[in-house]
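Marked as duplicate of an earlier ticket. Keeping the data here for the record.
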Amino acid sequence: MVQEVSTFGRAAQARPKARFGKQASAAGRSGPHEDVDEDEDSMGADQGNAHLLPKVMVPFRTRPGETPRKVKIQRQQRLFAAQDVAQLVAKEGMPDAPRPSVLALDAFDNTEFESRLPAGWVPRTAGVAPTPARVAVQQPDGAWAWQQCEVVGYDDASGADTYLVRMVGADGGAAGECESVPRVRLHFGAEDPFVFARRFTDAHASRARAESLLRYNLYVDSMPLDDLPPLTSEQINRMLGFALNSKRLRDKLMDTSQLISEVNMEYARTMNKVIFDETLKRGSSGCPAPLVALPEVFPADARRPAPSHGTVQLPSYDFPQTFSEFSFRSLNTKGEVIGALGKVKAECTKVSKMSLFATNHTKSLRLDEFEQGQVQDVGKGWYNLHESNMETYEFSKLRRFLALVRFHMEDTMRSLVGASLARYTAYVSAACASAVTIHSTSHVELEGSTGLRAPLLVTELQISKDASGFTYATPLDAVVPKFGALFDLAVQKLQGLPQLEPAVMESLFWAVVPMLNAVHPLEEFVQEMRASLVSTLGNALGPVAEYLQRYEQYAPLLKLNPEAYVAELEAKGEDLTLSEVCSEIRKHSAELATLTDALPVHGVSVGLVYVQTAKTRDMLLQRKAKLVSLLKLLVARVPRKMMSALDVKFKEIERQLRAKTTSLEDVDEQRKYIEALPQKLGEIYTELELAKPWYDALEGMRHLLPDDEARDKANGDAWPAKLQRLAERQLDHLADDEKAYKEEMQSEQESYNGTIGDLSLLVSTFQQHTDLTKMDAVVVDVTGLMERLKKADSDAALYNGREALLGLPLTDYSAVKKTIDAFEPFALFWNTASTWKKNVAAWMDGSWEKLDGEAVERDVNNAFKVLYKQGKVFSTRGLDKCSENCEAIRTEVEDFKKFVPLVQALRNPGMRDRHWDGLSTELGLDVHPDSSFTLAKAEEQGLLSHLETITRVSDVAGKEFSIEQALDKMQGEWAAAEMGVLEYRETGTYVIKVEEQITQMLDDHIVMTQSMTFSPYKKSMTFSPEQPFEERILKWEAQLNLVSEILDQWIAVQRNWMYLEPIFSSDDIMQQLPLEGKRFATVDRMWRKATETAKRAPALLTVCSSQKLLDQFIEANKLLESVQKGLSDYLETKRLAFARFFFLSNDELLQILSQSKNPLAVQPHLRKCFEAIESLDFADDLEISAMNSKEKEKVPFDKPMYPQGNVEVWLGEVESRMRSALRQQIVDSIADYKATPRPEWVRRWPAMVVLAVSVIFWSQECESAIEAGEMPAYAKTCSKDLLDLTDLVRGEISNQDRTTLGALITVDVHARDVVDGLAAAGGKLRVSDFEWVSQLRYYWRDDVFVDMVQASISYGYEYLGNSPRLVITPLTDRCYMTLMSAMHLNLGGAPAGPAGTGKTETTKDLAKALAKQCVVFNCSDGLDYMAMGKFLKGG
């Protein structure tokens, strides 16, 4: 909270560089200021190491009793070695992290601090040790780190003051390559560290001043010149007269236009500079400045003192004697002394009026914002006076003068500290309410607070990281230490300010620089104020902690998962009842309403702290509202599922009924289906009835079914009758089909009987085939005969089935079955034997690479089983030869079984070279099968005897192979995965698109990879020491996780960037939101770079492979979140300033604000804010004099206005002018109504004025007629007025007048009907009768009031333009009556009825009658309770 104290005189900001050898002497330290030649300094015992020794002001030959030179040097070495350059730099006022700069630091190096030539630091002599030093290396956060190095050379060719250094590692050895470093960043070991610290700090200060001057001139040069008047003709002529003051110049007829243009340009820039300086001056003095506050004080030259003139009359006295005495005693004998004392007192006065703290705020601040706004540095440059040399200083007036100055300065400092601390303590105390009572989360009562000033601090209520409760964004335990630290810092900043004398008397020797006496932190009054501050803050933070506790009641809602909650209900299935769901909806809807009232909309002031609750409130309400919405969707989803299932059943029935028959079986099946149809439909109808209560509940909730669901419901009701009619038609078709199929079957049976005998004969002769050498020929015969037998068997079953369907006796076809049973053993034997012979030949001698272990095992087992079974059959039948053949083949199969495990093990696809090598080593054989290897060779090698070892190795290889295959498959799929990079509008950049398929694949692969990490086979289990998969799996898992995180962050950044990019493309928005604009520009640069990289190489694994990219996106999301928050806060302030902005979306409001500097550009958006204002009449000087409707009706303002200030300010003024103008029009038209015939009067005034005033007089005249009992006569008057308007319409009038008369006739017709009704009622009427007071009546009671029954509402004066009016019916009157009564009671109204009956139009017409703005919003999914809240707040 410490602000910068101004310097003594502006000269301190532009002081010249210190002369060589002056400054350090004041500190009493030997440094680089002794004028000793390099040759002299090198004369010593160790001249080769002179560059390693500090310089001392001691003769080489010392006198007895004096300290020897070597001792002096050693003392200096110890002193220099004990110093920390970083601490010395910090003591000189150097910030820890200087502001980054684009200017090179060495350009501002003051070489007058230098004490040696480059050769003195780095001798170019062979055998000389390198010079040790420390080099300043800037860290990423801007801070300087000092690292050890050794200097090995310097650049004397280019003239640059740079040295060649090499870094020194922790072990003292060289680390890294040599690099060139400027002198200002290099501190030699033999160099005075105190002087170097000043040199380093001075370079930073000079650079900062240069940057400040550059910015100052940039601001001035950037100011517009168009609004400044140029030089007048008189001034130009006078300049030309002075310039062309000779006849020769005048005769040349020189073209001075370009010179005059330059003069005008320089004149305009000078005026801009004057304006800028004056604005800065007003801003710094506390006056409001019409500019954005600048965070710096620009350097400026010292103001010239005003000349002294004038005389004073004095009585006569002995002037020489008096003057001599005065001159001896007084300091004021010279004008310079008097001027200096005046300036000293002026500066002290100025400083005493300052404050070390900023004790004013316009809005609540976060704790870090509060600290940043307070903590600044106190300038140490109170003086920079010119040099002065006096030999007799101890007895001089100058010493007394400087002592007087020191007393002034010390007194001012104490006053400044005391006043600042008191003001700071009072400021914090004033921000703390005397008593805070927390009634609830939405009701906090403050005592001792006016409420006119925003709370000092602001914090945001957040959800804790573990989502178990609530917390504050700023920890409460950090507040008191932070305020106390600022308090202490203010006191400490004024410690150590040097006195003026050493700087003035530079030629004198100062052993220690004397310091100004400042307030000590332990002084009693300081401690008392600090204790008071801490106590006040502690008391103020208690209610803030208590307020946080009030939110613990909502902690269970944080753990609520709406989807899981509804899913749990839905999981009950058929057990879930409608009453249970409706009960849940009522319960949570009530809780939502309670929660809405209990939580503050924006935040609440708890004394010292303003707690922002908007985000937490929105989250809680959204979660509860989502639960209610999901429950309602559940109610809709249950019957929808029922109807979908029933629709499938109905359609399946329809498909069955419409199916065409192709045989007698189809006919029979179709008939059976139709017979069972009534029962099936009855079951379905029962299910249909179950859905009706759910639909009734939805109707009770006012839940409108989508068109497709409504259509499904209607179709479900119509299905049963439709299917019954279809079944009746289908029965007729089935009778015709049955007759045709019967005739066809009888013809086919006659030819079938002959086929059976032929097949039986062929089977009986097949036992003669016993020669295995003719196997191929026999197999062919077997195949053909078997096909014929199967065909005969299927035909027999078909015929018997059809006979049963027709009710005919079944024909006996058992002979076919017997023939098949007799032939089956022969078929199985010959087919199996043939197949076995072929397989054995292929397995033993065929290519090794074609063997499949699983197929070999399967074929061997099948052959063995078949041959064993058929051998038994042949023995039973007495076919010995066939049985022997079967046993011979089975024996071959049995002998081959031993090869099956060997084939399976050796043909394992997971076998790799490491497995073959290990197997060969263990067996002592060369087992490396290639394409020429066969099973026969394996038998020759004796591998069958090592089957157990081979099987074990094969099993391990198989497990490893499955992992390898999975990894290869995943990486292969990702090799082709690319990110879609699409051009985005005309921004010159791109957006990304990630397919859903890729996202799903990413999730699946992450899960798969994680499961691999737990596999014991990720490490090689064989003899090889290599670990082929573990590292690969871990790398792949890390890569997939990185891709997932980057895509998540990237999509989040893209969503926010696409929303904000068109907003911050506007220069006006960038100027109004400079901080947010700067943050968005940072993100935009990063975004463009990232998408450009993705466009060049869209492969996902390539783009999303950088941890740096992930960090960038995470930081970008944080920045965009802060940008959106700032934008929302900014728009909220605009809406609060002009309530009609609440009816505009953010995009529409931003369109207006983006063109706020040009009032004419805001005109197209006026219709969004006002009911009927299409445009405003602007004069050349932007004076606004009238408003125009879209019908081209013009209404002048009663007083013109200018669009001054922000757009929301002058739009508010337009609203005020609109109302006052319409009121004045009504006042004038009332007076004109009595003096002008009505047909002429209606054409003189704006349409809404005509309608309002006409009804005012109608109401007045009606009541007069009622009181006088002359209603029939007044009815005739109304009819006559109506006929006059009719005649007027029939004539030639403008479209504007025709629209006005149309609306007036509509109102007058209703007025005539009312009067006719009252006249026809007869009897004695009174103005208090319901028949009259139930009408919409207008009265002028110093203002326009609209009455109906007991409701009385003031006229709104909202300009409505020239628009038609709705025909008024009895139903319209009843709606008016209800809505008027509701508004009179400050309630709302909701006309109900079928669609299209005029509810909305009636409401809009009532708004026209009351001259109120009517905003119509159509309901949609996006119109939630929060949006409605904004509408109502805007109203």
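See parent ticket for discussion. Residues 54 and 76 are 7 Å apart (CA to CA).
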